[in-house]
Design brief:
Elements: H1 2-15, H2 29-45, H3 50-81
Helix pairs in contact: 1-3, 2-3
Catalytic activity: Exonucleolytic cleavage in either 5'- to 3'- or 3'- to 5'-direction to yield nucleoside 5'-phosphates
Region (Disordered): 1-23
Biased composition (Basic and acidic residues): 1-10
Length: 104
């Protein structure tokens, strides 16, 4: 019986657009965002069953964590490149950044 329930969950995950091995990570941050967008659209569409919604939610949680880790890595790289001192970008009165690309 446990095998049947496990198979049902796997089938629901596949129908929800979650690939086999739902723990498989995307190739890039952009791919993770695209997959998240697709999952959210399907969930908001209201056509998923409860099991499919749960599988999609779990996959979304994995993708969000992946994106957060990627952003943290990039932030660390920027800190290293900038000598651990991130400088605020001065804004002009219109709210856009002042200066050109020579500030980088």
């Amino acid at each position: 019986m446990a095998k049947t329930a496990s198979k049902d969950r796997a089938g629901a995950a596949q129908e929800a657009g979650v690939p086999d091995g739902a723990e498989a990570l995307p190739d890039s941050y952009e791919a993770a965002l695209a997959e998240l967008d697709a999952l959210v659209a399907r969930m908001e569409g209201g056509s998923l069953s409860l099991e499919e919604s749960l599988a999609a939610y779990r996959r979304g949680a994995v993708l969000v964590k992946f994106c957060q880790q990627q952003l943290e890595k990039v932030e660390h790289q920027v800190r290293v490149l900038d000598g651990e001192t991130l400088r605020p970008v001065p804004l002009n009165t219109t709210g856009s950044a002042m200066g050109g690309d020579d500030d980088l």
